[in-house]
Design brief:
The complex is a heterodimer of chains A (about 100) and B (about 120).
Chain A (H helix, E strand, L loop, with lengths): L3 E4 L2 E4 L5 E7 L7 E6 L6 E5 L3 E2 L7 E6 L2 E6 L9 E6 L4 E2 L3 E5 L1
Parallel strand pairs in A: 2-11
Antiparallel strand pairs in A: 1-3, 3-8, 4-5, 4-9, 5-6, 7-8, 9-10, 9-11
Chain B lengths: L2 E5 L2 E3 L5 E8 L7 E7 L5 E7 L5 E3 L7 E6 L4 E6 L8 E8 L9 E2 L3 E5 L2
Parallel strand pairs in B: 2-11
Antiparallel strand pairs in B: 1-3, 3-8, 4-5, 4-9, 5-6, 7-8, 9-10, 9-11
The chains are: A mainly beta (about 100), B mainly beta (about 120).
């Protein structure tokens, strides 16, 4: 079974910072990788699919890259609305990563 | 507009059964891949089950043999029958739609329904 890991587990940052979250797969998953944002008490929201494609309506400060086993989510300039938990998902077999919480420094 | 509305959660004793519903609008459940995803309190997301448009079903190992996913095409509703419930099944349960092609992420989610398994 494919395992997904994320680093860091928690990230403290300030508004305006450039933020990068890494997701690794235990074996190659091609580009079947999605990123979700979740705020407390809310359902997850799809941000990125196919590793680097931006979901409609998602701000362009969010970007994704990678293929195979290593992927990154980058927020180019962190905004107050971006403090949340981010999950990667290998959506060919539905496996989620453990999440990365982005909080205020 | 796509909408997913879960219901059926609540407090249930260990060993009990519960059926969750996900009423869909704005699309046809039977033409899409529909999943249940859960989140234990303070924990991450865990995929639970999927039903494909062709009717095939798949389950996470943690629920295999205890949970059953199904749909009612006439009601455009997705279900999750949960039997032999355990404390570790306590979670918010979300239904999720993958509206794209054969392999696609979950682009629509319901608001979730809380299941608490406790005596």
């Amino acid at each position: 079974d494919i395992q997904m890991t994320q680093s860091p587990s928690t990230l403290s940052a300030s508004v305006g910072d450039r933020v990068t979250i890494t997701c690794r797969a235990s074996q190659s998953i091609s580009s079947w990788l999605a990123w979700y944002q979740q705020k407390p008490g809310k359902a997850p929201k799809l941000l990125i699919y196919k590793a680097s494609s931006l979901e409609s309506g998602v701000p362009s400060r969010f970007s994704g890259s990678g293929s195979g086993t290593e992927f990154t989510l980058t927020i180019s300039s962190l905004q107050p609305d971006d403090f949340a938990t981010y999950y990667c998902q290998q959506y060919n077999s539905y496996v989620f990563g453990p999440g990365t919480k982005v909080d205020i420094k | 507009e796509v909408q997913l509305v879960e219901s059926g959660g609540g407090l249930i004793q260990p060993g009990g059964s519960l059926r969750l519903s996900c009423a869909a609008s704005g699309f046809t459940v039977s033409s899409n891949y529909m999943s249940w995803v859960r989140q234990a309190p303070g924990k991450g997301l865990e995929w639970v089950s999927v039903i494909y448009s062709g009717g095939s079903t798949y389950y996470a190992d943690s629920v295999k043999g205890r949970f059953t996913i199904s749909r009612d095409n006439s009601k455009n509703t997705l279900y999750l029958q949960m039997n032999s419930l355990r404390a570790e099944d306590t979670a918010v349960y979300y239904c999720a739609l993958a509206s794209g092609s054969l392999v696609s992420p979950f682009d629509y989610w319901g608001q979730g329904t809380l299941v608490t398994v406790s005596s």
